[in-house]
Each structure stands twice: as C-alpha cells, then as structure tokens.
Specification:
- There is one protein chain.
- By secondary structure, this protein is α+β, with helices and mostly antiparallel strands.
- The chain has a single domain, classed as Aminopeptidase.
- Helices cover 29% and strands 35% of the residues.
- It has six helices and ten strands, in the order βββαααββββαβαββα.
- A hairpin with a 4-residue loop joins strand 6 and strand 7.
- Helix 1 crosses helix 3.
- The mean pLDDT is 97.
Length: 189
Amino acid sequence: MTPFDFEEPIRTERVLMRLLTEADIDAVYSYQSRDDVCRYLLFEPRDRETVAAKVREHATHSRLEKDGDYLQLAVERVADGRVLGDMYITVKSAENQTLELGWTFHPDAHGQGFASECATALLRLAFDRMGAHRVIAELDPRNEGSIRLCTRLGMREEAHFREDLWFKGEWADTGVYAILDREWRALGA
C-alpha cells in the first residue's frame, strides 16, 4: 500500500476535507457535546476543553503509512465555510492493505448527502491513490443512518459481533461493513 501524506485539502462538489485547526474547536464542540451525536460513539458528550485537546492532537496527524496512522478531517461546506462534521480514516493493517473509515456530523447536516460525498472521496483515496485492498467501517448496529451510508457506498455487512464491547455501562454489539478494491472498481465509482 502506498503511503499518503495529507498536503492539501480534498475537495468534492460541496465540501472541503482538511486538517482540523484551533479555529474549529467551537464547531466540533457544537456536535461532540450532544447526547444524540455521541449515542453510538465510543465517548460520552465532551466538554469544550476535551474537544480542544482532541482537535489539537488530531491536527498533528497527517500521514497514512503504518498501523494506527490516521487522519481526522474537518468537513467544511464550500458555500459558507461552516464545519459540518469530521471524517476519519486510519490504517487498520498495512500488511493486509486494510483501511477503516468513520464519520461524525452535526445533526443539521444529516440527510443531505454530505457523509456519502465525503466517504466516496475517501474510498477513492484509499483504493485509487493508496492501493488499499479492503476498507471497513465498524459501527454500532443500532446506528441505522451509518448502516444506510455503508450500503450506499457499496459496502456489505461482514460481521455482527454480539455483546463484544462494554459500552457506556452495558454490553453492546459491533457491526463490520467492508468493501474490497475489486468491488469498488465494479461499481465504477
């Protein structure tokens, strides 16, 4: 798999995906502080100080090469510069050429196709520029919106692990969706 250095924003028709900056703290806080947004995330709603620390940490990650490398990208609407959410891409296994995607958006941006647009751009990056063999998304199977997104992207359910994760005071399931490079190419995306 070819390493990738994030040197310039990724632009789609309506959004710009770029590294997070200190200027994004309040925008990220506006959705990461919400119960409804964090319901299926691995963390509880965050206070502004925690969001600020995370944004500063994420801003330092700009290379995908080895296991655990990641990009956490601000999703900025081109029309008005508003940060709508963030996208995540990480090297799950360099040896097995596997990447993982994730996403979090402010509820005001739900249902408008922004996540599909961004995830499609990151799948192009993964398969066309980096030469990934496989891209996965791990999610809470109760998160119907993320499941619909995976399906729209051409990903298929590969696994549904029952009560494999102690999550917010209870046992929870994990769903795994995936797409292979040849499946991506067959979509003509």
